[in-house]
Specification:
Layout lengths: L1 H8 L4 H13 L3 H14 L4 H13 L3 H14 L4 H13 L3 H14 L30 H13 L3 H13 L42 H16 L3 H14 L3 H18 L2
Helix pairs in contact: 1-2, 2-3, 2-4, 3-4, 4-5, 5-6, 6-7, 7-8, 8-9, 9-10, 10-11, 10-12, 11-12
Length: 268
């Protein structure tokens, strides 16, 4: 009601159109939301909130290719906003484009960090863990790391998947700060937009997540991975930790039984 009153006074009131679109999304009135966002875009083509809103609305309608287009526009306007890249990654995932999804999720990981010189941001496709050593000196969102790991698994890149699962576990502790070029930076042009700018550092050094559902799922994955590789003692460590976590307990207990049976059969 208040937005409509504002628009009665000024039909070019950009924020009113955008906020009204948000309200319509909440009310599940997708057609009205789309109309509101389009009005906002007509007024200002650089309003990332309206482009992002259009993407969200098409996601609700499960029209993922349309959503992808609008999320790309939003990310191009707001290249250092983690939310834009996370939405883009999720959209790529839904349309079965795992390589682009990984790139977008990686960009989301670094989107909250300070501006990186262009020369340092040309190798976005490289892995965070490609050096062979996991970077646990900076806080990385486990909710982004975990889908990256699963996507690597989907691509049969199991070592990469394991490395990212290890990074998920590292976030339970309180990592310190680190220079941004120690994690994957930039973005290639194949399907993922890019840009420059400045932003605040994402996350707070020294504050870990503690045990969460996501870190427990990563621990279970690593336990099964170690089991499959014959690293029974390491698998047992992960499974035993899971039994104490409060998450994935039943699966962990079943895995412990399987591990004990395997160890007994091998005389370990």
């Amino acid at each position: 009601m208040y937005f409509r009153r504002a628009l009665t006074l000024d039909r070019q009131f950009l924020s009113a159109w955008t906020l009204m679109g948000h309200e319509y999304v909440e009310m599940k009135n997708t057609q009205a939301a789309l109309e509101s966002y389009r009005r906002a875009v007509d007024i200002n083509r650089k309003d990332y909130r309206a482009w992002y809103g259009l993407g969200q609305t098409y996601e609700v309608l499960e029209m993922h290719l349309y959503a992808l287009h609008y999320f790309q526009r939003a990310a191009a306007l707001r290249p250092y906003d983690k939310q834009m890249w996370q939405a883009l990654g999720a959209c790529y995932e839904k349309i079965e484009r795992p390589v682009q999804a990984i790139k977008a999720y990686k960009r989301a990981l670094v989107a909250g960090m300070a501006y990186i010189e262009p020369a340092a941001s040309s190798s976005f496709g490289s892995s965070i863990a490609s050096s062979g050593e996991l970077n646990t000196n900076v806080f990385l969102d486990p909710e982004l790391l975990f889908p990256i790991a699963l996507l690597h698994e989907k691509l049969n890149e199991f070592e990469e998947a394991a490395a990212y699962m290890e990074l998920v576990l590292a976030q339970e502790e309180g990592p310190g700060s680190v220079h941004p070029d120690e994690i994957a930076m930039g973005a290639s042009q194949d399907g993922v937009g890019g840009g420059g700018g400045e932003s605040d550092i994402e996350g707070t050094a020294g504050q870990g997540t503690g045990v969460t559902v996501t870190t427990s799922r990563a621990r279970m994955w690593l336990a099964r991975w170690a089991f499959s590789k014959g690293e029974l003692k390491r698998a047992m460590e992960f499974a035993t930790e899971l039994c104490e976590d409060g998450f994935e307990v039943e699966e962990a207990k079943a895995l412990v039984r399987d591990l004990r049976a395997r160890m007994e059969s091998l005389g370990k």
